[in-house]
Amino acid sequence: MERDEQPQGLLVADSDVLVRHAIADYLRDCGYRVIEAASYDEAMTALNAGAFSIDCVMADAELTGSGNGFALRSWIIEHQPGMPVILAGSVEAVAKSAANLCEEGPHLARPYDAQIVIDRVRRLMAERDRQAG
Length: 133
Description:
This protein is α/β, with parallel strands linked by helices. It has five helices and four strands.
């Protein structure tokens, strides 16, 4: 089966189970294949396993585990360049981390607006595909 025929895969990494399930279910309803991770460590396992094609990552900036969302984004930039990453979080909660760890702050605010999420995913994947070919 050609890549265009397969649904695109998304990794949703968020330590808040209610938030993670809600956005993951919404993305599934939009036709994406979604794998969920409850921590930085689970997200890293999913990224390194290779059993599930991941085309885009959406992570909470305050992800728990041995790293946070900023650390996950940094790892992806270094090891899987070109993969779109959407960081999400409340400005108040992540401002200090963003200033110390990353030149960019969160890209989406929580609680999520479902239409903004799907628009952002589609735009980032289209941009990645244009750059690839």
